[in-house]
Structure formats: C-alpha cells, structure tokens
Amino acid sequence: MKILFLFFIFYFISKSFGNNIPAPKDFKCSKESLIYTYGSGDAYFSKWSFTDSNYDLPFDCLNDSRSVTCTAEMNGENAKMLHGSISTCVIDSNGALICESISLSKKYYPNPIIEGEFKPLTKGGQTSLKGYYLAFGISSFFTILPDTKVNFLGYMLDPSFDATNIIINYQGGCGLKTLQWPNGFNFTFNHSNPIINNASSDNRSLIVTGSNFCNNSNYVNIFIDSIQVDKLNIISIDHELFEVKYNQQYCKSIVLNIVSGDLDSNKFQFDYKPLPLKINSIPKSKGGSIIITGERLSSQINNSLVIVNIGQNECKQVISSKNEITCNLDSITNGSISNNLQVNISINGIVNDNNLLFSFDVPFISDFILPQGEVKLIGDCLGTLQSTQVYIDDILQSNLTISINDKQTTLSFTPLNQIKKSKLYLIVNGTKSNAVDIDSSFYVKSIPSSPSVIGQIVNYTLYNINPSNYNSLPTIILKDNSTIKGIDISNSVEYSTHSYSFQIPKGCGRNEITISIGNQTSRTEFYYEQPIIRSCSTNDNQLIHCLGNFTNYLNYYEDDQIKIIFLNSSKYNYLESNLLDFKFDSFSFQLNKQFTSNQIYLNVCNQLLPITDIEFTQTPQVTKINTIEPILNDSSKHENNQTNNESIGSIGEVVSEKDQIQKYCANLI
Asked: Transmembrane segments in this chain: where (predicted)?
C-alpha cells in the first residue's frame, strides 16, 4: 500500500511539472522571424532571455481552438544578440507565467542560416562565419566532425559581440569538412580555391607558389599541360608551395593547374625561357661565327622562329640545338659600342631574361692539343701574325713561327724548346688573354697521319717517355671512351723515344684522341683520309658529274654523312639527299635555281672538298669547270712540308675564306 502511494505521488509530480515544459509541434526559422507552433492547451515559450548579451527575445503568441502559434520578429540587429546561455519564460497549460530554470531543449534550437561563402584557407587562420542563429548553445568553440574543436574570437559577455558575424580561428585542413551545432545541424564546407601565383625551376624540379594547395598529397592532383603528375614525383607540398620532379630541356610554355580537395585552381602559364650561359668573342673587323652555349636554346616545334640579337646587331643564319646556338655576326666598321652588349634570344616569342654580355676582340684560350709535335691553341680572337704575341711564363716568345687561321680560332706553332709545366697566354692588340697550364714535353707523331676510312694500322712514335713508364704499353682513348692498345714495334732499346702500332678502327672526319702511357698523357688529333675528286664535267642539261674513287665512302653516304653544300644568298644550305647520286666511282647532281654562287662543296663527315669553279649567267648555268685537288688537312701538310702561314690555317681547317662553313656543316649532320 505504501509503495502504491509513493507511485501516485511521483506520477502526479512528473505529470504536473511536464505540463510546464513546452514541446513545440513545429517550428520555422527564417531571417525575418522564428515561428513555433504548440498544441492547444500546451505550455509554450513567451520569452527567451540571453543572459550573456542581456537581451530578451519576446514571442507574440496567438491562441486559437486548435493550436498556439508564437512568433518572434527577427532582424539584423536583434539577431546579433542571440548568443550564450538561454533562460526562458513559459506560459504553462493553466495559463500561468513561469520564469524559472526551464531549459530550451537543443532539438528546438533554430537551425543556423549561413550567409555567403564560408571558404577558409587550407592553411587556416581567422575566417568569418556569417548568418543567423549561429551561436545557439555555443559557449566558446564549434565542432568539426568527428571531434575537432574550433575556437572563435571574442567574448560573449562583451556587448560588442556579433552573433551574425563570428570570427573563427580555423586551424586548417583539406577537402570537405563538416561543422556541427548542438542541435545536430550539420554544415559541410570546402576551402578556398587553390591559386597559383608564381613558378620557378631548376634542373630537376618545378617549384610553384600560391595558396590553398593543401599539405596532403592524397587530396591533391597536379597537372602540367593537362597531364597529371605522378604522385611519386611530388617532392613536397604545403599550403603555399609545392615542388614536383620536372625537367624541361627545350624552350616552351607550359600550363600548370592543381586540383585540391576537388577545387580547381587557375591556369598558370610558365615559360621555360632560353638560358644562354656562355658566348665566345669574335674579331670586330671580321665578324664570324658566334657560339652560344646554355640550356633550352631550341624548341621542339618544327620551323621555330629563333632570333638572336647582340646589342643592336642581329646574328644571322641561326642554327639552334638544346644546348647550343650558332649564328654569324657581321663585322662592324663604324664606331658603335663593341663591349658589354646584351645577348637577347627569342624562341617563338619567349625571350631570355638573364644578363649575358658579349664583347668583340676578347682573346680567350679554351683548350690546346699537341698534334704531330706542334702546339695547337684553340679559342677565340687569337689575333693575326702582326697583332699576336705568345708569352710562356711571362717571357715573350719572339722567335716563334706561328700560324693562325682566318677565323682567329686556332693558333699553331712548333716550340723551339719543349714546354714543361708552364703558363702560356697571348697578348692581342694589347689585350691579355687568360693563361693556360701547358706541358708539351710528352708528344706523339703518327705515320700515316690520315688513316683510311675502312680502318688501318697507324704507327705512333712517342717522345720523352719517362723511365718509370718504359715497361708500360700505350693506349689510345677515342672520343667515345673506347680504347686501343698499342703494340711495341721498335727494335731499339732507347725507350724515351719509342714506336708502337695501333689498329685504328674505321671512321670518318676529324677525331680528337688521347694517348697515354703509364702516368703520361698527350691529347692530339687525326683526320681520316678524304676522297679524291679526279675531275668534274657538265652536260647540256646542266648535270654536274664528278669522277673519283668513292668505294670506301658509300656507307657514309647511306648514313647521310655526305652532302652537297652551297652558298645561297649569303646563307649556306645543303642539297636534299635525294638529289645527289653518289656511286663508287662518281657522283652527280643537277644544277638548279637554288645555286646562286660558285661556292659548292662536297661535305664528307663535316670536312669540305670544293667541287667546281662555276660562273653564273642570269639563269643558273655552268660556263666553266675546273678540276680541283682535294684540300689537304694539316697532317698531310706536314708530309708535304708546307710552310706555316696565315692563309694555310691550322690543323683541320679547310680554306681560310670558307672557315665559317665548318661550324654550319657540323650542325647539319
């Protein structure tokens, strides 16, 4: 009986108190009003009091026979005050006003209304969240699912706190995130779109700066020219910088974009600009071949437009490759500036932006070799017989007989005494060149000097061999790093000067080699034998026909290493291969309108043989043909005991006035 009594007591209390807790049947939230609907006779809220802002939000309630509808008018000003702890006043089911600790259930909180975009930076920072009913039940932080707390700035007890514009201290992230309010309302947002601001490159990677890249490659896809970069090639990524493995060897424009958290960036064009790093000097009075080395000096696009300007002077007949540009710069006879001229290269409109300067008449020794006991200096602006002085260890070599080629790029002499561990430099027209360390005490001579193109045994005599190397056998190292072992062929016991034979393989053109024995080395060169053109003739159809023995050169013709070179409007060109008929005992080609001068050559592995001496009438027509002996290289020059002089030139040069063709030919093959 006692238990039954207690049950009725508790039931009565709970029933009576439960009638004082409003339970809306429906509610609607907008920026203009809050509308709550209750059942007829049910308790309802008449006022909400926000203690932190000291603001009361009254409800105007309309009671009919079926329901009670309570409306609170809303605007931008009173919406600012709706934040912090909430106390309520309730009209109970008996019509009594109760302003006690009756809490507002979270499920009846108005859902937030988000205004504008909420797109924080991926790196985080202060971000504004604007709208209505944002701070219901919020004390000091929001929650990003699943359980990340995000604080906001400001103090709710501060009268200036604005609940319609809350500054969140966002910690950063990538991809889609979800804010959750205490009433269970979820708001999913993404971050600001990635923006690419700039890019730079080195030889191994592409470095891109901007914003909102994310710092997790799982959320990121990077594209170069619409091709996705393999994630394994992403070196590093952060919110404002990423680096990918990428190397571009050609001058070109690329288009970059990044997709971060399914948000696409802007399309950013980055130019891989030509990068000239080094340029030779040429004589101002002669002009000559300019050689520019560097990176990205050509394009993959066929028929690219490459323009080279040196100061105000255009460099003509441009030939470009990835790492080298050659062109011809005319002589300058006026008083224009000739030093520190800016080098500008444009490839399909993309121009270099580095500062490379050019000056005329700067003597420079880039290398030396020791062919046939001579010293051959290789460089730029090496002067003339009248203007050049050779110094060894600061002593003028006044008794040297030197030869300098017409381009002033090689200087050769036979030393009066062997040069041992000395410094050599030139003074040309009063300008001193760089100094090179030189030692000519160990050198070689060969017989024959020009081996056959089908290969041949060549005997090399080595001079001034050190005693410690007497028991060693010499080795020739070819340009491709292959080696040839020498065989001792001397009967003499004099080992300081000793001869060895080498089986030179088949080949063609010029070959620079290194001969070593023990710890001694000497760099030299040889030229394979050139074909002999016995005679040339023409017929009424203007077909030029030349006779000779070309059996050993047929393979090189098939490999496109034998061409016809001709001068056309101050530019050297080659005749299309299909217009040259090359046989074992003759070759022929048709004279046509392309030929506008009498400079026609047979190019054999970059070595030139003049074919004819042609005089032209108004239309191309052969009026005279002379048979011309093949041009002797310098090795043959030694065998024929020719005298060094400026017109003969130095090793490997053809005819001095045609020197500029050689570089062009080297780029045609």
From this structure: none
